[in-house]
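User: Can you help me understand a structure? I only have the sequence.
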Amino acid sequence: MTIKKPLAINQPEVGQIIHDLRLLAGLTQEQFAATLGVTYTTINRWENGRSKPSPLAMEKIQQKLKEMEGQGKELLEKYFVK
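Assistant: Let's start by predicting it. Here is the structure, written out as tokens:
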């Protein structure tokens, strides 16, 4: 499986990835922020398209998807695999 560079994803997809992953994990924005080491405000901005994650944050998001079975893999392939 080939992973795209995080910067190759356009802004609307970034917000959707984060939202989908967070809901799949059953986490609030606050809880998801804590797992990534960012603030609630940061997650909220990402999901609403007002900013985008750094490359390091995108790596963490990709890693979270890899750690999840089933739907996590589907999201990873949907957004990151060529």
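Now, to help you interpret it: The mean pLDDT is 82. Residues 6-80 form a domain with the 434 Repressor (Amino-terminal Domain) fold (CATH 1.10.260.40). Let me know which part you'd like to focus on.
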